[in-house]
Amino acid sequence: MIGPSCDPFLHGTVDGCHWLVIRRCLDDPSEKAYYLVFAAPGTSLHTMVLAIGARWSIEVDLENAKELGLDQSEVRSYLGWYRHMTLVMLAAAFLLSICVQDSCHACQPEASASSPALIALTTSEVRHLLARLIWPAPSSASLICQWSWWRRAHQYWAGYYHRRRRLKAG
What we know:
Blueprint: E1 18-24, E2 32-38, H1 45-67, H2 78-101, H3 123-133, H4 141-169
Antiparallel strand pairs: 1-2
């Protein structure tokens, strides 16, 4: 609840609810990003940084929804818009349910002790797999699944080295 001490219209007075968070780029220390954060008094810097970082995942989700057609509605009525949005959200939920159910055993080559780690199956990857497995007749389903496994292994290692570099610089 916003109390009188958190009024955003105090015209420059210190209210204890507005914070300026400055992030410097690890690659170029002269490049900085500024965030104006509205948070309750006593909110930790860690919590603010988590909220700032959540923006990226929200943007990724919106981009994935646009790939499904969220931004392709040219309707003239509310009912048409509602039906279009419902179908797009249903498609997104379907792809997400496949990601959740994935145990990575169906699309992995024979497991061995030296098999690399994989990132989780993403909705974009599921869309790609469905497009290759269902609509155009594939030459080999096992080849397409092996390609997906290989791609996700490389994505895992790219993320691993990215996080490791961030930890070393931090």
